[in-house]
Amino acid sequence: MVLELNIDELVCVDGQRLLEGRILELEGIKSVTANIQKHKAQIKYRDTQVTARQIEEHLHEFGFTIDGVPGNSIAFGRLPSCCKEAD
User: Fold this and answer.
1) Is the pTM of this model over 0.85?
2) Which of 60, 62, 68, 80 is at a distance of 20 to 30 A from 53, taking alpha carbons?
3) DSSP output for 8-49
């Protein structure tokens, strides 16, 4: 399966690395491709091991805003300052 997400904080290399690292913590993730110019991530996963909802919830726990829905505000505060800059 493929999940495509708009992620507001995906604006810099630090955000990209953080996002990729957090996603790869989940079992069933095959790959993640992040595009910081478009603020998008494409995640390939095995739906027998993880669901799209679990992936989104996992990213929300780390403060990422997905498709306009803000993540955990405390975790958001811990993101690198460059990730919080709008373009």
Assistant:
1) yes
2) 80
3) TT--SHHHHHHHHHHHTTSTTEEEEEEETTTTEEEEEE-TTT
What's the order of all strands across the beta sheet hosting 29-35? 2-6, 40-45, 29-35
User: CA geometry: angle at 26 spanning 10 and 58, to 5°?
Assistant: 55
Question: How far apart are alpha carbons 43 and 29 in whole angstroms?
Answer: 7
d(CA 1, CA 8) in angstroms, rounded, equals: 23
- Please name which of 33, 25, 12 lies closest in space to residue 58, comparing C-alpha atoms: 25
Q: Grade residue 84 by pLDDT with cuts at 50, 70 and 90.
A: confident
CB atoms within 10 A of CB 3: 19
